[in-house]
Amino acid sequence: MRFTIPFVLLLSILAPMQAAAESKPPITLAADGFPTGQETPEGVAADLARAYINNDPAAFKAICIRPYGQGKFRKFYEEYLPSVVEKLVAEKNKATPPPGSPKKIGKVFAFRHLSSSKPTSTAYAAFDFHDIVFVDVGVFLHNGQRFVKRTMVIKDRDGKWYVHPTPYDDEVLSQGLDTESPSSKDFSEAYQIPESKANSVTSEKAKSLPTGWRLSDPPRVVGFDPQAVMAAARNLMSMDEGSVALVPMNSRASEDRLQEIMEGLKDVHSRNEPVVCLSRDSKLIADAIGRSLTKYKGLNLAGLRIVVAAPDQPPVEFVELLNARKVQYFYLQVAPSPSGDARAEWYSLNKQAEDLYTSGQYARSIEVANKALDVAEKHFGPNHSLVAASLGNIAILYKNQGRYSEVEPLYKRALEIQEANLGANHPVVADTLENLGLFWLNQKQYSLSEEYFKRALDILETKFDPNHPKVAQVLGNWGTLYHRQGLYAEAEPLYQRALSICEKTLPPNHPQLLHIRENLDRLYRTTKR
């Protein structure tokens, strides 16, 4: 990075106080009485709000900052812009706007510079941006709620101001953006307001607006980190204290937890605790809450607050259902980070794949598991441990679906990554070796299977206590290998040693203990003992 031209300074802020009235710059106002145009930061920020209000894709595209930088963020940004355009087109075609969508502008605050100079310095040196500020714009939603949208505005090399529609995805430019204090100065205090009927009405409206506009920090939170989501949800609900129930909607257990909360709401005092439902799919949240509301259809839920934290808005029918039950509904947009949240996304996708497989949705499970692999390779590189774990997960799914020819290459690639990263004698390597042994056992390739079991057992006996349950697991599988070949004399001592370990280390009803007992009993019946 290198500097090419000096910084452009806003010298007007240094003007003498007595000349303030004369030095105020002019501003263009739209028919709604608020700023418009790319000559001022407030104008373009208000225009972004109008683009969302009117679902106007052309207006949105015209005012967004050009793609900049390189690598992952640029690619993400280039994909993000058309995705918003598609969403605006889809929303425009809906007969009824979503309750949580913006309805009209209520207040525009004067622009402010970030407290930190690092974003501006970096942007100028790297991308030839001439200034970076932010504008807080208060909007009314269709559900009657209101919040302040914080908009980053950038002065580009052409002298015009552009909005950054997704600033929190750029960790450098957005540094400190969400921690700046709420704005208090109205735009009309910083500009010369033209003498016209519309503007005089606007000026009166700006003065008479109710106080209490509160910034959601930010309304759009980046990443699925539960603590960050909870903090943003608290700000959204203007909560400074009190407990909040977080329910990540990613499994049947999550829905059970939701119904437990509903059961507890029979106590009127429990309704003071809001519920934050977090998911990558708002429809999953809507469906789960809908089933809970149906189950508890006679329960008085007036005053309960529910926050839907997801990348997309839930269906209109869901919000209408909440309104009918007098539940206060909040929407928090959660966007996956192009880098920082990749690990959490990977774990979430694998959990989703597991749940899908358990519910019998095998094809969908494999699709989601491959998506997890893509996330790992994209964000961590082809030789990362998460890539190896994904390869192993997909291999298990393929094996269970009978796609045997695709299994061994996945396991072997996983093994190469693990041995390179962890060393040949790591317990994680032993897990993959055991899985390869099980695969070849089911393929009746007994010599190959025994080779992998032996290597796995050598590692585990070295790294763990000889009486560790994982040692017993490999012993049991090796015993099964001999059992299936009719080598009962070789199988029995392996089963017995495995049983002895399990009886010492596991609860009486543990599945591993019961399984080894069953195998040993079967061997005794076969040999008539």
What is the helix fraction of residues, given as a range? Answer: 40-55%
CATH fold group of the largest domain: Nuclear Transport Factor 2, Chain: A
- Give a quick account of the main beta sheet: strands, pairing sense, barrel closure: 5 strands, antiparallel
* Multimerization status: single chain
Please mark out the parts with pLDDT under 50 across 5 or more consecutive residues, or reply none.
1-22, 197-219
Beta strand %: 5-15%
Structural write-up:
- Helix 11 runs antiparallel to helix 12.
- This protein folds into three domains: 198 residues, Nuclear Transport Factor 2, Chain: A; 116 residues, Rossmann fold (3-Layer(aba) Sandwich); 185 residues, Alpha Horseshoe (Serine Threonine Protein Phosphatase 5, Tetratricopeptide repeat).
- The protein has 19 helices and ten strands.
- The protein is α/β, with parallel strands linked by helices and 529 residues long.
- The N and C termini lie far apart (79 Å).
- The strands form two sheets. Strands 1, 2, 3, 4 and 5 form a five-stranded antiparallel beta sheet that branches.
Question: What are its keywords?
Answer:
disordered N terminus; 3 domains; 10 strands; 11% strand; 5-stranded parallel beta sheet; Nuclear Transport Factor 2, Chain: A; alpha/beta; Serine Threonine Protein Phosphatase 5, Tetratricopeptide repeat; elongated; Rossmann fold; 529 residues; 5-stranded antiparallel beta sheet
What's a concise summary of this model?
With 529 residues, the chain is an alpha/beta fold. It has helices spanning 20-23, 41-54, 57-63, 72-92, 118-127, 197-208, 226-236, 252-264, 282-295, 316-324, 342-358, 362-380, 385-400, 407-422, 427-442, 446-463, 469-484, 488-505, 511-526; strands spanning 102-108, 112-113, 131-141, 146-155, 161-164, 220-222, 245-248, 275-278, 305-310, 328-335.
